[in-house]
Amino acid sequence: MLVLTRKVDDAIRIGNDIVITIISIDKKNVRIGIDAPEDVMILREELVRAVAEENIKASGKAELGILNSLKEKLKKKP
After folding, report:
1. How far apart are CA 71 and CA 65, in angstroms?
2. 14 DSSP 8-state letter
3. Cellular location of this protein (predicted)?
4. Would you give the DSSP letter of residue 22?
5. DSSP string, 53-68
6. Element at 11 (helix H, strand E)
7. Is residue 30 within 8 Å of 22, Cβ to Cβ?
8. 12 has which bridge partners?
9. DSSP label at residue 71
10. Residue 76, SS3 per DSSP
11. Burial of 32 (0-12, 13-18, 19+ CB in 10 A)
């Protein structure tokens, strides 16, 4: 991981197409602006983690439901 120190209005360039600019800094927050091509997906990490966790929970419930359904069908077989 590259760690940098920046001040308000300083910027960081990633490749040729992405520029991250420090907009403001207060006691607990840093506000950044990201200038990137439209085809570059930009997501907050905590949202990515939350969606991944929900997907895991949902797939687990679906698998459990399928297994219970199969169990019931197998019980009914002669």
Report:
1. 10
2. E
3. Cytoplasm
4. E
5. HHHHHHHHHHHHHHHH
6. strand 11-14
7. yes
8. 20
9. H
10. helix
11. middle
pLDDT in tens, 10-24: 999 999 999 999 999
pLDDT in tens, 29-74: 999 999 999 999 999 999 888 888 887 777 766 666 777 777 777 7
DSSP class of residue 28 equals S
- CA dist., res. 12 & res. 6, Å (int): 9
In the block, tokens 């308000």 appear at 8
Both tokens of residue 15?
């490749």
Question: Any idea what DSSP says for residue 78?
Answer: -
Q: What tokens were used for 24?
A: 């403001």
DSSP string for 36-56: --TTS----HHHHHHHHHHHH
**Residue count of the chain:** 78
